Amino acid sequence: MNFRHLIMTQPSDELPDHPLEHLAALGEVEPALAAFAGLGGLVMRASWFRNLGDPLDEPVRETAEAYAQALGFPQALPAVLVEWQEAADALLTHDRDTPAFEAEEQLRAALTVAADANLLGPAEETLGEGLRLVRALTALAAGRGAEDSARFYGIDDEGFLRAAVGAAVQSAHDAALVLAAGETAAHPLALKFHLFEQGRWPVSLIGNSLNIF
User: Fold this and answer.
1) Residue 33 DSSP symbol
2) 159 lies in some domain
3) Domain interval for residue 22
4) Which tens digit of pLDDT belongs to each residue from 78-97?
5) pTM of structure
């Protein structure tokens, strides 16, 4: 199956030596990016894809409901995708023109504008570099998590795994924008990232269903 069109962010950024120190240095130059080093450490410790297909416990369910509510879809209830083939089918039928996808795109654009406004200097020299480092750290950590899960669940579809890592990278990128924009953990994209932190993958929000692997 071909999932290439679903990979929103390619996990291809290279990491320098001591990336967390680089992020800390950026935070010293730009106060708006001061939390990036902490985020970098978090993505390296997160339980990427560790709980795929498990029943939704109360903390995950609460996060999922809060995410759907904050995104503007309070009617969408969390539904677990038990098998990876179910998640693959949900991905293949996922349409980027869905209202939920459009809502996230609008939020992402607004965060970018707000983050730029919080900077003291050129965004490409600080925000751009910080986002690149966060993406690279996430690609590394989430890639390892995806490999571990692939062995455990018997997933042999490389495209599916790349889509999973790409989704994780995109979510970490968005979480960094939330921080740079001065938003809180109640922001929809921060809540979505928290689902990844909890070892899950929010695959799609279609109609009244928030599909979580």
Assistant:
1) G
2) yes
3) 16-212
4) 999 999 999 999 988 766 77
5) 0.91
